[in-house]
Each structure stands twice: as structure tokens, then as C-alpha cells.
Design goal:
Layout lengths: L1 H25 L9 H13 L1 H19 L3 H26 L11 H25 L5 H4 L3 H20 L5 H31 L2 H27 L13 E3 L6 E3 L54 E5 L5 E6 L4 E5 L6 E2 L10 E5 L4 E5 L6 E3 L2 E2 L2 E3 L5 E4 L2 E6 L16
Helix pairs in contact: 1-5, 2-5, 3-4, 4-5, 4-7, 4-8, 5-7, 7-8, 7-9, 8-9
């Protein structure tokens, strides 16, 4: 009977709470079907990550023992500086190198779902080792605490991965976002382990505090899940956002492309105007120099100079910031995270447009988007981009900067994928 317990009962007790939590997180996506195959592989890779985690944890523990001996502080330092960071890093790498790069990872909520999946795969194997050496009844403790703990800690860097995917494709933009999520997850993981140790050896008060921390983290995750579910790009079609502008005849505010409600005149879509990067004054179409201060309106800000073709966004103060570097021969543009250039704006379609590299320039194609693609104020289906042209996807506006003479060949990698 002991052999039967070890071979059958322990794995079942270990997997059951993980399966229940996996169902819970995967079912949070209400507007698309779960990618079960990708979830299954992510779960398995998370389980396999326990092998290098075990090795690294033992190495880290031995280093602290060499320095401080087999004292209590060696165990505490191992939990604080080795176990939490190592386990969270390995789970993050599993998601980054597999699920994050797949087309199924296409909305912010997927950051929570896939990070939780990898974490629960890790927790399942960890449970087997733990329960095999202890009383299987301890699953009643590890199920409600350790398993969701792994998933909730990992949700911090999972959401960071989603946020990074929508950020400009530069390592200087994306890496800090992911690093902040990872450090927060590692810190909470380490504190969880320390509180569990304190509850076991010092006082049950620490256990009550641990429950409170887990409850707070769970409700935080629930709030983020609800927010990303409510704002999911799969929830509905692209929000049609007509352009509001003044009538050229009477000055009454109306909708471009319709008759003015005041005088009946047809309201034309206004031409896109560049803003001066120095004084923020709108310029006449085609102007090279600001009519007010004389600044070159086509020259990007010094901190944003880049030799490769790229899009920049311009703030109301005239400040430029790189929005996306065109580092591939084909670039998809849209609202879901599986596009190359992600634009989180309700007027942008899920697959809005694409860019194709020609011999000396990029050609822009509209993909029958709801709110259209515009170049210098004119709606286009296909056009070749020129340096300094104003490009609008729905109501999201950018300026295209062409490749400079110092540019090198198009590189497939300019930062995090």
C-alpha cells in the first residue's frame, strides 16, 4: 500500500489543485477559445524548469553554507536571494521563449494566463517532491497557498511581458518593463517563503499575515484580469471613431465626411499638419521650417535619432518619441499583441495595416480597417512612404522617418521580440 500511495496518490494529489487553478486562469479569457495545445506545452515546460531550478537552488544554498555555515541565516538568505529569483526567472524564460513568441499570445490577459500556466506546471512537480517526502494530507495546505502563490507571483511579470510587447521595439524600452515585473515577483516569492518559514517555526501570527497577503494579491490579480477582459481587443469589433472637426463655412463643430448640422455645408477631413518640435505650432502642409521660430520641423529630437526607418509619435508639446523601429521586411500593424507594431487604441483594428520593404522604401497597405489608414490626411489603400509624412491609423497619429545615409541593412532584431 505505501508503494501505491507513492506512485498513484501523491501525483494525483499534486496535480489536482494545479489542474483546478489552471482551469480557473485559462477560463478568464471570455472572448476567444483557450489555446489548449500552447497551454499544455507551456505547462510541461514549466514542469521541466524544476530541474535547473533544483540545481541552481542547491548551488546557491551551498555557497551561503560555505560563507555562513549551517546556521539559520544561511537558510534565510537562500530563500531570499536564490529560491525566489531563480524560480521566477526560469518560469519567465519558459514563457518568453515559447508562448510569448506565438500568435496565440495576442492580448494583455494572455500574460496572466500563460505565466500562470508555466507557474502551475512548476508547482505540480514541486508538489510531487514535497508530498512524497511528507504527509500527503499537506496538499490541503499547499493547494490553497503554494499553487496559487506561484501563479499570482508570476502574473506580475506576465503582465509586464504583455505591456512590453505593446511598447516600442527597443531593448531600452522593453527590458525595464519586464525587469520591474520580474523583480517584484521575485521579491514577493521570497517574502512568501520567509513568512511560511516564520509561521512554521515562530508563530501562527505569521501564517495569518501570509493569508492576508495572498488574499490581497489574489484580489489585485482579479482586478487586473477584469480590466484586461473588459478591454480585450477580441471583445467586439473595432470601435468606429468619426473625426470631430469644425465646419469650414460656419465654424460649427461637426463630424468630418457629413453635412454640417448648422449650415448644411459638407465638412471635409482636415489635412494633417506637422507640429514644430520646438514651439508646438501647427505648420502648413509641406513646410520644412517653422513659421514662428524657424526650427526644422522635419528634424527629429536628438535623443530619438536612429539610422533605421521608424515611426515617431509627437506629444502636444511637440516632443518626439520613437514608437516603432522598422527592422523587418514585413511589419504587421494592429491592436492585438501578435502584430509587429502594436497600437493600443480603440480606433485601430485588430489587423489594421501592413508594411512591405521595397528596394528603397516601405510600402504601406491598409487591410480593410474600420477607421482607415491615412497618409498626409488622405485615406489610402496602398502607398509608398516618404520621409516626414504624417501617417494615421484610425485616430492614432505618427510621423514616418525614413532611413538615413548612415543606416545599415535591415536587422531582424533591435530589442526584445
Amino acid at each position: 500500500m505505501p508503494g501505491f500511495t507513492q506512485i498513484i496518490i501523491v501525483p494525483l494529489l499534486s496535480l489536482l489543485p494545479c489542474a483546478l487553478w489552471l482551469w480557473y486562469f485559462s477560463s478568464r479569457s471570455r472572448y476567444k477559445r483557450p489555446a489548449w495545445r500552447v497551454l499544455g506545452v507551456t505547462f510541461a515546460l514549466g514542469a521541466l524548469a524544476t530541474i535547473p531550478a533544483l540545481v541552481l537552488n542547491l548551488v546557491g544554498q551551498s555557497l551561503f553554507i560555505d560563507f555562513f555555515g549551517r546556521a539559520e541565516r544561511s537558510h534565510i538568505l537562500t530563500l531570499l536571494f536564490v529560491v525566489g529569483p531563480v524560480e521566477e526567472l526560469l518560469k519567465l524564460l519558459v514563457v518568453y521563449f515559447y508562448a510569448y513568441r506565438r500568435k496565440e499570445f495576442d492580448e494583455p490577459l494572455d500574460g496572466v494566463i500563460f505565466s500562470a500556466t508555466a507557474a502551475l506546471g512548476f508547482a505540480a512537480v514541486e508538489n510531487i517532491f514535497y508530498l512524497a517526502r511528507n504527509d500527503p494530507a499537506l496538499v490541503l495546505l499547499r493547494g490553497p497557498l503554494s499553487n496559487p502563490g506561484h501563479a499570482l507571483f508570476s502574473a506580475l511579470w506576465g503582465l509586464s511581458l504583455s505591456k512590453a510587447k505593446a511598447a516600442p521595439n527597443m531593448i531600452g524600452e522593453r527590458l525595464p518593463i519586464v525587469a520591474r515585473g520580474f523583480l517584484m515577483a521575485a521579491l514577493l516569492h521570497s517574502l512568501f517563503d520567509l513568512l511560511l518559514l516564520a509561521a512554521d517555526r515562530i508563530s501562527v501570527v505569521f501564517f495569518a499575515f501570509l493569508i492576508a497577503v495572498m488574499a490581497a494579491l489574489f484580489f489585485w490579480a482579479q482586478a487586473r484580469i477584469k480590466f484586461h477582459s473588459d478591454t480585450s481587443p477580441h471583445r467586439e469589433g473595432t470601435l468606429y471613431m468619426p473625426l470631430r472637426c469644425y465646419c469650414q463655412e460656419c465654424g460649427f463643430m461637426g463630424t468630418a465626411g457629413t453635412r454640417c448640422a448648422e449650415c448644411g455645408a459638407f465638412i471635409q477631413e482636415p489635412e494633417e499638419l506637422d507640429l514644430c518640435p520646438v514651439c508646438s505650432i501647427a505648420q502648413r502642409p509641406g513646410a520644412m521650417f517653422c513659421s514662428r521660430c524657424g526650427a526644422n520641423v522635419k528634424l527629429p529630437a536628438k535623443e530619438n535619432l536612429d539610422t533605421r526607418p521608424h515611426f515617431v509619435s509627437i506629444s502636444s508639446l511637440g516632443e518626439e518619441r520613437i514608437a516603432y523601429i522598422l527592422n523587418d521586411a514585413e511589419v504587421s500593424i494592429g491592436r492585438t499583441l501578435n502584430n509587429s507594431f502594436v497600437i493600443e487604441h480603440p480606433s485601430v483594428s485588430k489587423r489594421h495595416a501592413k508594411l512591405m520593404a521595397a528596394e528603397d522604401a516601405y510600402t504601406l497597405y491598409d487591410l480593410e480597417s474600420s477607421n482607415g489608414t491615412f497618409v498626409n490626411g488622405k485615406r489610402v489603400k496602398e502607398t509608398k512612404l516618404a520621409d516626414g509624412c504624417a501617417v494615421r491609423f484610425g485616430r492614432a497619429q505618427f510621423v514616418y522617418r525614413a532611413q538615413t545615409e548612415r543606416a545599415t541593412d535591415i536587422s531582424p532584431d533591435s530589442g526584445m521580440a
